[in-house]
Design brief:
- The protein has 347 residues and is an alpha/beta fold.
- The chain has two domains: 183 residues, Peroxisomal Thiolase, Chain A, domain 1; 155 residues, Peroxisomal Thiolase, Chain A, domain 1.
- It contains twelve helices and 13 strands.
- Strands 1-7-6-4-5 form a five-stranded mixed beta sheet, sandwiched between helices.
- Bound molecules: coenzyme A.
Length: 347
């Protein structure tokens, strides 16, 4: 190793978000539309979740989890003013990959024609984007890569129970994708300042899709031929999830602020995972944050799981709500349970 290589290998870089993009399917599904499929109402959904409408992929519109991810990624790459050939790693966060295996990251590698680029799927559900961003940050900090493409994308609509039986889950989730190009930043005070990740697997089944899986193989399900077996639909213990979410959001945001000697007053914009408007409002009240300090767009898209933070971040940035020097806090909680936060000093 020559002197320059040696010096480079011990330098710790920071990483910054150099470009953001998003894509949602054109097909809008209002709460009213859902009342034709199940016993529900616009009032119930708005009051309990804040959601007015969500986007669903339409059969034949050409979208899939990877395809939507690519659309968001192309926008992020263009805004980062680099070419897709400059991407050295793809991190793809999703709970609804195109295939059981391989992951959707490799499909993005092919669709973007990035030669031999490594691709990795991150399976952390609603916290997926925060986990993926934290992973990108580590690869950049170590000096291994200069540009990492991070995607969060979900195709929920094809796998939800739109009968009254599944209404507590199916009204909440929507389809869409968001992406960020994460690039090397030489100023250690700029970009991602810290990331904080956690999990608690004892609650794995409180928000889960159990079958088909290796725990519940397809032949076993077919053989049982039990119409009551709906393990192929997501299950959510809504109130339990809610109670855990508000506690973990609070803890992990405070953990991030403490690490950076910041207080809640220093937050220029908190972008919580768009799980449920009532969860965001609870966190806002707890910290005494003003409306302008918290970004929500769940009313338009529902809960898009791993895509919700990058979609919200992209929209906030496009609206001019994010400026140089702003302290941005990203926070997520979801199935696993997993949760995490990222503190950014916007470059
Ligand atoms: N439309 C109309 N009624 C519905 C309904 C729907 N879509 N879904 C459930 N209900 C009914 C229930 O059947 C129940 O009826 P009952 O009182 O006759 O038994 C009633 O509404 C209340 O149900 P409950 O589950 O107690 O409602 P809730 O206030 O807890 O709200 C959630 C349900 C799912 C909205 C709420 O628990 C929640 O937001 N949890 C967190 C979910 C979340 O954020 N998930 C993502 C995590 S990342």
């Amino acid at each position: 190793m020559n002197y320059l290589n040696c010096v480079e290998s011990i330098i710790m870089y920071n990483s910054k978000i150099a470009g953001l993009g998003m894509y949602v399917p054109e097909n809008k599904v209002s709460n009213h539309n859902l009342t034709h499929l199940m016993d529900t109402s616009d009032e119930w959904i708005k009051e309990r979740t804040g959601i007015k409408e969500r986007r669903h992929i339409k059969k034949g519109d050409g979208n899939s989890t990877a395809v939507m991810g690519v659309k968001a990624a192309k926008q992020a790459i263009e805004r980062a003013k680099i070419s897709s050939d400059d991407i050295e790693l793809i991190l793809f966060a999703t709970l609804s990959p195109d295939y059981y295996f391989p992951g959707s990251g490799v499909l993005v590698q092919e669709m973007l024609s990035i030669k031999d680029c490594p691709a990795m799927d991150i399976r952390n559900q609603c916290s997926g984007f925060v986990y993926a961003l934290a992973t990108a940050d580590q690869f950049i900090k170590s000096g291994m890569y200069k540009n990492v493409l991070v995607i969060g994308s979900e195709n929920h609509s094809g796998g939800l129970d739109f009968s009254t039986r599944g209404r507590d889950v199916s009204v909440i989730f929507g389809d869409g994708a968001g992406a960020a190009v994460v690039s090397r930043e030489v100023d250690n005070d700029k970009g991602i300042l810290s990331s904080h990740l956690h999990s608690e697997g004892k609650h794995a089944e409180e928000l889960s899709l159990i079958g088909p899986s290796t725990n519940r193989w397809v032949p076993e399900i077919i053989e049982a031929n039990d119409p009551e077996d709906i393990s192929y639909y997501p299950y959510m213990n809504g109130q339990f999830v809610f109670k855990n979410a508000v506690v973990r959001f609070e803890q992990v945001i405070l953990e991030g602020l403490k690490k950076n000697n910041l207080s809640t007053e220093d937050i220029d914009l908190l972008i919580p995972h768009q799980a449920n408007l009532r969860i965001s409002q609870f966190v806002q009240r707890k910290f005494g944050l003003k409306d302008r300090q918290v970004y929500n767009n769940i009313e338009k898209y529902g809960n898009t799981t791993a895509a919700s933070i990058p979609i919200a971040l992209t929209e906030a940035w496009e609206s001019g709500l994010i400026n140089t020097g702003d302290k941005i806090v990203l926070a997520a909680f979801g199935s696993g349970f997993t949760w995490g936060s990222i503190i950014l000093n916007w470059q």
